[in-house]
Amino acid sequence: MAEAIVNGLGGLTVGFQMLAMDWRNLIMLFVGFILLYLGIKKDCEPLLLVPIGFGCILVNIPLSDVMGHEGFIRAIYDAGIDTELFPLLIFIGIGAMTDFGPVLAQPSTFLLGAAGQFGIFLTLLLALALGFPQLHAVSIGIIGACDGPTAIYVTSKFAPELLGAVSVAAYSYMSLVPIIQPPIMRALTTKKERETAMKPVARPVSKMTKLLFPLVITILGGIIAPKGLPLLGTIMLGNLMRESGVVGRLTKASENEIANVVTLFLGLCIGATMVGSAFVKAQTLIILCLGFLAICLDTVCGVLMGKAMRVVTGGKFNPLIGAAGISAFPMAARVVQKEGQKWNKKSYLLMHAMGANAGGQVGSVIAAAVMLSVLAGMGIIR
Amino acid sequence: MDNVTFGVTMLICGMGGTILTLWVMSLVMGLLGRLFPEKPEQKEG
Questions:
Q1: pLDDT (tens digit, 9 = 90+) per residue, A113-170?
Q2: With contacts defined as CB-CB under 8 Å, which chain B residues touch A113?
Q3: Residue of B nearest to A218 (CA)
Q4: What ipTM was assigned to the predicted interfaces of this complex?
Q5: Which of residues 348-367 of A touch B (CB under 8 A)?
Q6: pTM given for the model
Q7: Do A124 and B37 touch (CB under 8 A)?
Q8: Fewer Cβ atoms within 10 Å of its own Cβ: the N or the C terminal residue of chain B?
Q9: Rounded Cα distance, A323 and A381, in Å
């Protein structure tokens, strides 16, 4: 009987023994706490960092079976990440939440949205130079889309083993946009450029144009880059529902209930991919550094495109607006407005920056779609 | 395919394709904006 009791007690202490045996789990438990701290105390993307942090803690508890064959997170992962369903459902919600009116009022700001994606391709080159396999480099580059669902969609497809690092980088840096962008914006522009006041966006956009926008973008984008049609189609479906105004219940469900439930599951699954043995590697640190660089390069290219537009318009364009051509909506637009006001109190850049920012939202999806279609064209993916 | 060919192809086709696609979209949306301008609301009565 004594032996049975000792064995029974042994069953209660085996977790501690395992924890002592693999220090990487301890590090990841700490990382989980940091993510929770950032989400709860610092308000950095809490909707994602809280479930990611908790998922990270769950999966790194020794003998945890949550990602095992019958684990409950594995079931969610197989149903939503493996099938690429979750990022697409989130996209319907994003489409339903986003007003593309500012970019439609000034369609030229689509070009700023394009420049804001160049960091993707430049980072891809850097990742290749550092020796990452080609599809891993694609997944690392996509952090530069500054768009969590796009990064998850591409990475879960081509480099699922990098999903944790890529997703955490994408969401963390998105929340750090107000810190990352301003120094780059100041470094690349002159005082005179930053002080440029812009005329208000005067052109109103008709309901018909707003209704046609999701249809035209889906058809045109789908024909040019069919591999990205799921991404493009879902965001535009959400937007069509919003602009049609006749399916209020579906629109509300997409931007609230569906988006909330999927965000919870998505976060848990991402956190659960951060197992110590797979995550605590020099490679993870390199990915985080490259992700940071990707967002810096996006900002650089956006501001440079802004400067080009300033030349074309004969000095009437404030190049700071170019920094808003990324997908972090509407955070990047607010950063531009704040920075512009610092240099000229009479400068109101918000609506212009919202146009560039909405362009960046479309741009990130188009960039991913183009990337997938080019990869398919080269025969690297099917 | 070697990494240099892959990287340069992705850079040219990826960046070029993105900017070209969005430029075409900006033209089409500009055109639609002109075809369907916002009409001022008519006063009743």
A1: 999 999 999 999 999 999 999 999 999 999 998 888 999 999 998 999 999 899 888 8
A2: 22
A3: B25
A4: 0.90
A5: 359, 362-363, 366-367
A6: 0.90
A7: no
A8: C
A9: 32
